[in-house]
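[step 3/7] inverse_fold.run input=structure_tokens len=218
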């Protein structure tokens, strides 16, 4: 799990509880140390009380070393907007460069954060150019999260999971992961998945705006 914030950490814990071994990667050394030491869950998210005990099934680190035993990489790093409201893909590019050798072995790469229209295809093309894929075939999927803050534990298990995969083999790998939590999966195209995520974000922002506007007049 690359990125261990409000998206990546609850998902990591839920996957661990479902039987998966988790290697978490985050650039914040103190944060990784905290998460890798067990103890209370570090922020309020109902349903998550404690962190898994450190060991082979729960390992936190800041580097991309020692990943030969990892089968799939799930990326939750954000794409923050710049002053021109253009998504900054720098963090994702850094991840691709760091994982190049691992992805060249055909390992699965799943994105969970917001991606603009056409970005998933562009990433796939970039992986081909970097030769970060096996036999010229990127093993990439976009499976966006759509969870409300404070409801991650509930919604990971109640909301259908959107899955857009480059081919049937990649989709089957995604099923092995997400079927452990989601009640059902919906397979869509890259562009459909990107649009679903963007519309979900827009709806949420509009709700926040309306709530704040109403509060101004109360």
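[step 3/7] decode complete -> sequence:
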């Amino acid at each position: 799990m690359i990125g261990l914030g409000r998206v990546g950490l609850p998902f990591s814990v839920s996957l661990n509880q479902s039987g998966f071994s988790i290697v978490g990667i985050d650039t914040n050394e103190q944060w990784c140390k905290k998460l890798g030491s067990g103890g209370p869950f570090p922020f309020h998210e109902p349903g998550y009380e404690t962190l898994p005990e450190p060991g082979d099934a729960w390992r936190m680190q800041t580097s991309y070393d020692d990943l030969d035993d990892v089968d799939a990489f799930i990326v939750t790093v954000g794409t923050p907007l710049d002053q021109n409201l253009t998504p900054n893909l720098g963090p994702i590019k850094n991840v691709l460069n760091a994982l190049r050798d691992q992805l060249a072995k055909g390992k699965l790469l799943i994105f969970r954060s917001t991606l603009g229209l056409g970005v998933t295809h562009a990433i796939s093309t970039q992986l081909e150019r970097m030769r970060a894929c096996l036999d010229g075939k990127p093993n990439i999927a976009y499976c966006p999260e759509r969870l409300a803050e404070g409801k991650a534990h509930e919604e990971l298990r109640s909301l259908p999971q959107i899955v857009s995969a480059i081919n049937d083999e990649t989709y089957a790998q995604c099923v092995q992961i997400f079927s452990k939590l989601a009640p059902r999966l919906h397979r869509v195209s890259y562009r459909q998945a990107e649009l679903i995520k963007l519309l979900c974000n827009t709806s949420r922002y509009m709700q926040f705006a309306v709530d704040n506007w109403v509060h101004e007049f109360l």
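[step 4/7] annotate
The CA atoms of residues 14 and 95 lie 23 Å apart.
The two ends are 43 Å apart (CA to CA).
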